[in-house]
Amino acid sequence: xxxxxxxxxxxxxxxxxxxxxxxxxxxxxxxxxxxxxxxxxxxxxxxxxxxxxxxxxxxxxxxxxxxxxxxxxxxxxxxxxxxxxxxxxxxxxxxxxxxxxxxxxxxxxxxxxxxxxxxxxxxxxxxxxxxxxxxxxxxxxxxxxxxxxxxxxxxxxxxxxxxxxxxxxxxxxxxxxxxxxxxxxxxxxxxxxxxxxxxxxxxxxxxxxxxxxxxxxxxxxxxxxxxxxxxxxxxxxxxxxxxxxxxxxxxxxxxxxxxxxxxxxxxxxxxxxxxxxxxxxxxxxxxxxxxxxxxxxxxxxxxxxxxxxxxxxxxxxxxxxxxxxxxxxxxxxxxxxxxxxxxxxxxxxxxxxxxxxxxxxxxxxxxxxxxxxxxxxxxxxxxxxxxxxxxxxxxxxxxxxxxxxxxxxxxxxxxxxxxxxxxxxxxxxxxxxxxxxxxxxxxxxxxxxxxxxxxxxxxxxxxxxxxxxxxxxxxxxxxxxxxxxxxxxxxxxxxxxxxxxxxxxxxxxxxxxxxxxxxxxxxxxxxxxxxxxxxxxxxxxxxxxxxxxxxxxxxxxxxxxxx
Length: 563
Prior knowledge:
The chain has 3 domains: about 60-165, Thiol Ester Dehydrase, Chain A, CATH 3.10.129; about 180-310, Polyketide synthase dehydratase (Thiol Ester Dehydrase, Chain A), CATH 3.10.129.110; about 320-480 and about 500-515, 3-Layer(aba) Sandwich (Rossmann fold). Helix content is about 15%, strand content about 30%. Strand 17 (about 355-360), helix 8 (about 370-375) and strand 18 form a beta-alpha-beta unit. The chain is globular. It contains 9 helices and 27 strands. It is an alpha+beta fold. The longest helix has 15 residues, at about 90-105.
């Protein structure tokens, strides 16, 4: 072989143009079909384990891409950050992600890195929807510490960040005042809803607050985003104007996680011996209105500037009529009116700002879209309607479409809609952990069901124009009975767990708001008619009206004409 390579090299040096394949033709080995192959007998030897070094890639972080989806478990809690009816990514969320990215860049755990943010400018809001991916890019310059967050191709926020070895917190003293009042969480967030902040879940972190907003307490739920976001709302009570204001600039933010956890450990020791369901770690919040500093735990916010934004225009006014509807009405309704009756009946019992409903696909026309519109017509209530189906290419307005196998993944559902489930014991057992306390089941039956399972309580019944009968049910094990202060026994048949009961026309029911239906009966002919505008100056309101003149009576008619 060496002789062949050496000879071949000399031929190339001499520039000989020749066909090597003629001098050395390829060797062909005869292979039969029965010849055994070697490759199937070659296998990996897995009898020994070897350690492989892992190189931390965080040290090279200067740019980080993040996909935000509020349907993912990591970002699911952000669904509670509702502003003016929309889910927006919180401004404090950008602060946390930049802090986390900066810590990755220097190769440290963010909970051990003391940082100072300066000159933070929020350029635009980021709206989030369920099952929608939002690509975020965070860039940090190593030399200057300047950061920039980009959503798609648009900048969202920029500023500066740096690490500090020692941080000295500001000394803030809030003077006590006997004339001050302390608001609880319920009262404060009622006021916040009037401002346009409809926060839910972990974003309702304020436990109590003084009426002037200079002092209060915040719950620590091991979530930096919700904790700092709750701090930013202490300024909402300073002004009496109920306007919606969002942060645009923050001069400085100081975060000392080591000090923060030291305070947490002291508070945990103070709670030793307290029952677990009553343990709440509360941080004191102090405000300096002159220095414009908000302080809580190991966090300080300096000089936050807000900008009043225009709230979304209210919906066009709708004409509705209030009508008494018995719980077991014989009248037949359209799908739209039936959805309103079911929704208003349920919301009289379920007191919460978000109404969660799931409908399981059937051969009947979906009720989800009508139900979502019925919830949206109710002030201060958000609709969360999901349609479970295995079919494709289904689109419903303001309704989420999911696989029909995902029912077990839900919890805290207020209403479940399914066909022919009154006698489906397997289904009824499977939804015990899915339904909310006092939650409802809406069974779509082809006719009235006379026999109801012992597990169920029939609370209402609505007949449809297409012949279906909607049975509104509750699981008896899930019902939490109300305990009113004053009880007046009228009859032994008042045990339907309704909050509001009206007895009228020898039936128990309630008043419901339905679409206003004008009188379309034909008007009898009249000898005297005239045209006039129903709205002065609006020619589109021109209509015929019945006149008072009776031609059969001998009356003097005077005709006036102006030129």
